[in-house]
Specification:
Order of helices and strands: HEEHHEHEHEHHEHHEHEHEHEHEHHHHH
CATH class of the largest domain: Alpha Beta
Largest sheet: 8 strands, parallel, barrel
CATH superfamily of the largest domain: Aldolase class I
Strand order of the largest sheet: 4-5-6-7-8-9-10-11
Number of helices: 18
Length: 465
């Protein structure tokens, strides 16, 4: 599986593909997809040799590019939604914490099957940390999955919750801001052309007016927006999202939307593109609320607020609408309400994690090792009176990083069974979100197809050179 050197990588590439001045020319697609792309994806994540790792990451993106799948911003589509165009569906944004290649393959297969258009692959700042998936790795694995499954068109990779830590910001604003800026600098070149800035943690309710409460939020979001705009490839407008209510706390209001947007726009230079969407709180929490027996509590989601904020966002500010976080553990019969209430985008993560870890084909011994790791390493997160099942449910996401290679290398029969289960779930959710048959909406994405230059380890060394 592993390429020990870049010479070994080039030798494996030579029979079916050639690096050219403009990218990658694939001469034998069946051979490339059936074997080589799997190896490239693995090496993009785990290669010990840095040159092999970087070359594999570029090849994953270049192969997708050669096939017609390219890193894309959803900004234009969302701004069109702000004009009441391309309506009637809700875009799923899916956080992948583990088995990333297999989960992404299942998503692309489902989208192709039902002729779906926009689906977002995302990872949050916190998830990048505990899953040990840096932006360049995460994006390249998504591109590899697109290549494997034959997807063509835009590939939306998103930085979710690039979030300020309120305590760290209060102690040293410059240092905490620099950490997010550094992450943005890492993400955009990797193909993250969609970034959700979450400075809602800085909302301060001690102030008497909503505008004052939101000031630190909108001012810092504007600062990060300006930085993102300075990194964009020519012709690309990165989709930037803002947030007015931290998920898991009190519900958002239209008044908060207006306070944020008015202050935010005033903080941007004239003519600079702003955010295309707004994340809100309507009653959910990330990962759901585990009960003592390990099941998840039912929640009441405020669809009226979600619709009111979406409508105000479009009517007053011309942006796409509201984004719902923490939705994957909601009852499935609620999902058709999102397009009915004109919700722009929903974020989904924990339910898919649960389906993988609890799947009958996921090895029990590995699962128990992961849970034991949580008990040993995450005790600082334990809450008074919490049962073991509650504790494991809340912390098991932290085990994806330490065990990511073992999970990636599960037997193919196990992975195929898990992919099939995920595909069935994705199809059900996508249909409820009215995503079937929306492929035509991707025509709104018209920016250039960007491919970075090949690493020196590849340039001039492939077949025919």
């Amino acid at each position: 599986m592993e390429f020990p050197t870049t010479d070994a990588l080039n030798a494996a590439l030579k029979p079916c593909a050639q690096v050219t001045a403009s990218g990658l020319q694939v001469k034998d697609w069946p051979a490339f997809r059936e074997g080589l792309i799997d190896r490239l994806a693995w090496n993009a994540a785990f290669a010990a040799d840095g040159g092999v790792r970087d070359a594999s990451r570029w090849l994953c993106r270049a192969a997708a590019h050669a096939q017609g799948a390219f890193a894309a911003s959803i900004h234009e589509l969302y701004m069109a939604r702000g004009k009441e165009q391309h309506t009637g569906f809700t875009v799923p944004a899916i956080n992948i914490r583990g088995m990333t290649y297999d989960v992404a393959r299942a998503i692309f297969r489902t989208a192709i099957k039902i002729n779906a258009g926009p689906v977002i692959f995302e990872i949050a700042r916190s998830e990048i940390g505990y899953t040990l998936q840096r932006p360049a790795e995460y994006a390249s694995v998504i591109f590899a999955a697109a290549c494997k499954e034959g997807w063509t068109g835009p590939v939306f990779v998103q930085g979710d919750h690039f979030q300020t830590n309120a305590k760290k910001f209060a102690a040293d604003p410059a240092k905490e801001s620099a950490e997010i800026t550094k992450l943005i600098d890492e993400a955009v070149p990797a193909g993250f052309y969609n970034i959700d800035i979450d400075t809602s943690t800085l909302v301060d309710l001690k102030y008497p007016t909503v505008s004052e409460q939101q000031k630190a939020n909108y001012a810092n979001c504007a600062t990060f927006t300006r930085h993102i705009r300075g990194l964009e490839p020519k012709g690309v407008t990165v989709s930037v999202g803002g947030e007015i209510g931290e998920v898991g706390y009190q519900n958002s209001t239209v008044e908060e939307l207006c306070a944020f947007m008015d202050g935010y726009r005033a903080s941007l230079p004239a003519g600079l593109a702003g955010i295309s969407k707004m994340s809100v709180q309507t009653g959910t929490s990330h990962g759901g609320i585990p009960l003592p027996d390990g099941t998840v509590a039912k929640v009441d989601i405020d669809f009226k607020t979600l619709q009111a904020i979406s409508e105000a966002a479009r009517a007053k500010y011309g942006i796409g609408g509201a984004v719902q976080h923490g939705a994957s553990t909601l009852p499935e019969n609620l999902f058709d309400q999102f397009p009915k209430t004109t919700t722009l985008e929903i974020h989904l993560a924990t339910e898919f994690q649960n389906m993988m870890l609890d799947h009958p084909k996921f090895p029990e011994d590995l699962r128990e090792k992961m849970f034991a790791w949580c008990r040993e390493n995450c005790q600082d997160e334990a809450k008074p009176g919490q049962t073991d099942k509650q504790f494991v449910y809340k912390t098991r996401k932290k085990a994806w990083g330490p065990f990511r290679r073992q999970v990636w290398e599960l037997p193919e029969a196990s992975k195929a069974a898990i992919r099939a289960t995920l595909e069935a779930k994705f199809e059900s959710l996508f249909r409820k979100l009215s995503l079937a048959g929306t492929r035509g909406a991707l025509e709104a994405i018209r920016h250039p197809k960007v491919l970075p230059a090949a690493p020196t380890a590849l340039a001039g060394k492939a077949a025919g050179s």
